[in-house]
């Protein structure tokens, strides 16, 4: 029997919960004993869960293979990075059926199959290599566990059945996918996956208890708008040791540290729904993110469950809308539940609660263009299936009625609103506060979700600060930074109401001054009636053109010294912020938290 002989390694390499030696000592002893280590298991030999020395080590000592433990009595036949601080697992044979801590064994049987058996002899997992000339299993420097036949022919390899991680030079094909862990404390299969879809495009999907939906690439754009192609049916992708990923659907990305030598990398479908490329810091043993599919985690579907709304703080936080409460404390996967009887709801009088900057993606009953808000409301009232409607005043004045409320998010970058359908008897005048944060907006006649000062950013806003950098050279971005940070600090730390009232207006004027490139601030400082009417006329002109769906106005008002070299989306965001801050009705002005977050989101 050819096994790894490492008597110095104790159970610390088997369980992260009750180690007999600290992990750094285990790694130290590992290197002391490498001269005795093997990377292969011969036919007829086995690895025992109870023998600490039964571990295969790749020749360059990057990877280890054996029983990986968590908790009291749960073990998985796995491959992990030897030198990462947490012994990061890259592959598991039995992720959804852990083996017992006593009596379990992995064997390369005489018939050529590698088999994992439990304490009672039952087969937990096995390869499809029976009736072959398999002679040995070998752990390669690539992290690939292979079963070899005569002439080193590969009869089976772990690279063909990835778990949640793809390693450099491991081919990703139409027959493979990456499935996330359920959560941080579990290796069981989760709800998120990375795969080639039937149209030959790489996608990320949430497949939960209630719904299944694609959320990356941007689901409301077509294949070519997302920079992909579906004409190549080979469905193959790979990345190299340098951190360059290429795919048959034209998806390409590079690691932020591309070109640096001797970096260990892994591409992992994480349990939070994001796909990330990691680089290992050899000095600390910790992983550093070198690329990620989504910059804002509220883009991930299923984060907060049914009815709930996701906000970024900057990490995603979940909040229930008015009329709803969390279903199970501490478990947002189950979302929110209504505070009213849904069965009797249809026979009751209803009202609509306005939720600015909020949308629920998908589950549209109807989609109507050039609709009035009254017509959209009537459409929802007349349909017993309708739970809310989304209305966007700008552009095509679009109306969407919703029969389910999933994938809720809140973002100052989203110009529409959700109107939530509730019984008139439901009290919604006192919205709950999420994590002790202040209301993001307050306005008469509307009731909104309370959430974090950091709002959600739709993925179409993923742009750099080109526009603000241009203003920095033409006007002076330092003024903007001082105004933003100064007022934000003052409001949050001291909460001076009177000062804040005047501050919003001054800040709005500064914002418009940046855009126009002329001293708009002088209008208010001089206090003349004519100047005040000019500012009011400017605001009314922009609001009127916006409501009519015109977008050429932004080119007309932006500082001509920029010669058109700016992002129109970013310019529009800043103008709208400035206008909202100089509103005569002070209740309609945004909080500084919302202003700060909207500016921060301009970079995406």
From TrEMBL:
GO MF annotations in UniProt: kinase activity
Protein's cellular compartments: Membrane
Location of the Bulb-type lectin domain: 32-160
GO biological process, one term: recognition of pollen
Matching InterPro entries: Bulb-type_lectin_dom (IPR001480), Bulb-type_lectin_dom_sf (IPR036426), Pan_app (IPR003609), S_locus_glycoprot_dom (IPR000858)
Keywords per UniProt: Disulfide bond, Glycoprotein, Kinase, Membrane, Signal, Transferase, Transmembrane, Transmembrane helix
Record field: transmembrane: 465-490
Protein name: G-TYPE LECTIN S-RECEPTOR-LIKE SERINE/THREONINE-PROTEIN KINASE SD2-5
Membrane topology: Single-pass membrane protein
SMART domains, per database record: B_lectin
Superkingdom of this protein's organism: Eukaryota
SUPFAM superfamilies the record matches: alpha-D-mannose-specific plant lectins
Domain Apple: residue ranges: 336-424
Presence of keyword Membrane: yes
Classification via PANTHER family: OS07G0415500 PROTEIN (PTHR47974), RECEPTOR-LIKE SERINE_THREONINE-PROTEIN KINASE (PTHR47974:SF4)
Keyword NAD listed: no
GO cellular component, one term: membrane
PROSITE patterns per the UniProt record, alphabetical: BULB_LECTIN, PAN
